[in-house]
């Protein structure tokens, strides 16, 4: 009987159910009863599939520190071999109250310009792209609140990959802080000779200590205009990501904050956090760097 009903169901777009039932010598009531049962079975199958997808989404969401929204959850599912439409992901996330983090807006700037220092020219010009890794780097300083006082964090970000290639933390924001972060990037081999190192005009960046170190390393210094956060927007964007996605707003001490920031920057942000590349789709910063390296090798 089920084979006959399946045949009628498949052909009802071409012929009427009355005619098909008559030809197949089947009561219409039997066909409609089969449809009702098949529909219930299909609904149950969809429910079970949605439950399995919700579980998979929950695992991805927790692994992302509960930060991923629909686009990056969908991208991670596809990376895992699950072919799924983003609209279905959005529905399942909505039904299970799984929500990505939104960005907080506004931050107090640490920039204190040294009026006696001669600023470097702006070699970036708000073009926050780069043809290959290690050629255009942006940096900034932010502050982390702890019960012991501020913990200051300086970082250098590669514009080609959005990877944090150097960072440093201290209970001050003197020039040592940004120099140490630059030395980390150099020690890791993340800077090409003659690369552009861009920042704001804070006294840490106009200091003779940093300028001397850049000359020793053979790099070119670049600075945005005073009071214009948009001239260094890419560096500020990373602070927004960190402060929203790290999951903590206030730390009991600087040591705990240091440990959490270290855990966020390298294991998570550089190696696991997906970002959409204009050509290659969703990749982590580290994967983006390796992709550039592979493509350069093929081109050579």
UniProtKB/TrEMBL annotation:
Involved in the transposition of the insertion sequence. Transmembrane segments: none annotated. It comes from Streptomyces heilongjiangensis. NCBIfam families: transpos_IS3. PANTHER family: TRANSPOSASE INSF FOR INSERTION SEQUENCE IS3B-RELATED, TRANSPOSASE INSO FOR INSERTION SEQUENCE ELEMENT IS911B-RELATED. This is IS3 family transposase. Residues 129-293 form the Integrase catalytic domain. Pfam families: HTH_21 (PF13276), rve (PF00665).
């Amino acid at each position: 009987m089920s084979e006959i009903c399946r045949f009628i169901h498949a052909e009802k777009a071409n012929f009427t159910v009355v005619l098909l039932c008559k030809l197949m010598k089947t009561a219409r009531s039997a066909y409609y009863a089969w449809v009702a049962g098949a529909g219930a079975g299909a609904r149950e199958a969809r429910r079970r599939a949605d439950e399995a997808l919700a579980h998979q989404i929950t695992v991805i969401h927790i692994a992302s520190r509960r930060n991923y929204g629909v686009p990056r959850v969908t991208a991670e599912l596809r990376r895992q071999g699950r072919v799924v439409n983003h609209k279905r992901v959005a529905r399942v996330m909505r039904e299970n109250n799984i929500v990505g983090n939104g960005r907080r807006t506004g931050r107090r700037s640490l920039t204190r310009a040294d009026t006696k220092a001669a600023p470097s020219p702006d070699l970036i010009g708000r073009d926050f792209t780069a043809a290959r890794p290690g050629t255009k780097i942006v940096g900034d300083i932010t502050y982390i609140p702890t019960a012991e006082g501020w913990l200051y964090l300086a970082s250098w970000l590669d514009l080609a990959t959005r990877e944090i290639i150097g960072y440093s933390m201290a209970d001050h924001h003197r020039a040592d802080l940004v120099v140490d972060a630059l030395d980390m990037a150099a020690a890791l081999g993340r800077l090409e000779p003659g690369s552009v190192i861009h920042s704001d005009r804070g006294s840490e960046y106009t200091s003779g200590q940093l300028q001397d170190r850049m000359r020793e390393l053979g790099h070119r210094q670049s600075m945005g205009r005073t009071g214009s956060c948009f001239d260094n927007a890419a560096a500020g964007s990373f602070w927004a990501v960190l402060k929203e996605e790290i999951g903590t707003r206030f730390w009991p001490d600087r040591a705990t904050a240091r440990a959490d920031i270290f855990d966020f920057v390298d294991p998570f942000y550089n190696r696991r956090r997906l970002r959409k590349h204009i050509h290659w789709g969703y990749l982590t910063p580290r994967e983006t760097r390796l992709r550039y390296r592979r493509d350069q090798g093929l081109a050579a």
